[in-house]
Design goal:
Layout (H helix, E strand, L loop, with lengths): L2 H34 L5 H5 L2 E2 L4 E2 L2 H32 L4 H14 L3 H15 L6 H25 L3 H9 L4 H30 L2 H6 L19 H10 L4 H39 L1
Antiparallel strand pairs: 1-2
Helix pairs in contact: 1-11, 3-6, 3-8, 4-6, 5-6, 6-8, 7-8, 8-11, 10-11
């Protein structure tokens, strides 16, 4: 076969595989929407569960999920960004940096249930937080910390060195160069880590199972030391527990649809923020 034939075969192979991935995604989304859209109503979204979660809505679980997403991002994002700044801008490429990167890669491969057991041991028992939002937020923050660090490192490395040398040549300090030149330029790509972290945190069940999630708690939290319901654990419980699974199955599909919608909305907001700062940086 000639080069053009080989190229055509490779092109169509990759094209078919790409379309297959998209088709599988739409198939999954269509399946969830088809089975869950009939359950969605204003009462389902704004009321608390009743009758052992066989009736009522999922409003406490929605609020609890948002609390955990925001809490974990408040913890993971600053720590991850500052860690990446240190390893990329200050520490060079010595043994310490290589060791940190190896440990970061190892952390990213640890199963989430291990983070749940660690969070229960440290935050719930040792530090005395109990089953609470703060314990779950710290556990989920540790879970996505490697992801934030690696994506931030790649975003900082993508900034041309001429930006740094030009800023230093104009008399700016190292800190001023990082805060006023490097970070604003890299921020649109840094938000990629934020988007990926939100998607992972919102769907985790094992870590919150040991640290924060309540089986049935039809009320809103009053402080960061309260337990909450969360959509992933709520979905797991109603899909696997109880005596009448056929009756609760539509609620499970509706909960899954709401969870997907929340992840989509959070990702869209992060993407809008990325485009805003990216356009602002181009103008400047």
């Amino acid at each position: 076969m000639g080069k053009k034939t080989n190229q055509s075969i490779a092109f169509w192979t990759f094209r078919i595989l790409g379309l297959l991935v998209v088709a599988i995604l739409f198939w999954i989304l269509g399946f969830i929407v088809w089975h869950g859209v009939g359950v969605i109503s204003w009462d389902f979204l704004t009321t608390a569960p009743t009758d052992g979660m066989t009736g009522g809505g999922i409003f406490p679980a929605i609020v609890g999920t948002f609390c955990l997403i925001i809490g974990s991002m408040v913890i993971a994002f600053p720590v991850g960004v500052m860690s990446a700044i240190y390893t990329t801008e200050y520490a060079g490429n010595g043994k310490i940096v290589r060791f940190i990167r190896v440990m970061t890669n190892n952390m990213s491969s640890i199963p989430s249930i291990i983070f749940g057991l660690f969070g229960m041991s440290l935050f719930v028992n040792t530090l005395g937080f109990g089953d609470s939002i703060i314990a779950g937020s710290f556990t989920l923050g540790l879970l996505v910390l490697p992801l934030v660090i690696r994506t931030t490192e790649e975003a900082l490395k993508a900034v041309p060195d001429s930006y740094r040398t030009g800023s230093l040549a104009l008399g700016a300090t190292k800190l001023q160069t990082i805060t006023r030149v490097v970070l604003p330029t890299a921020f649109p790509n840094i938000t990629t880590g934020l988007i990926l972290s939100i998607g992972r945190v919102s769907g985790e069940t094992a870590p919150i199972l040991f640290t924060v999630a309540a089986y049935f708690l039809p009320k809103l939290p009053a402080s960061i030391y309260d337990q909450v319901m969360a959509l992933p654990y709520h979905l797991y419980v109603i899909a696997t527990s109880g005596t009448d699974l056929e009756a609760t199955r539509p609620i499970a599909y509706g909960t899954a649809l709401v969870l997907i919608a929340i992840v989509l909305v959070m990702n869209l907001l992060a993407s809008m923020m990325r485009r805003y700062f990216g356009g602002k940086n181009k103008v400047n």
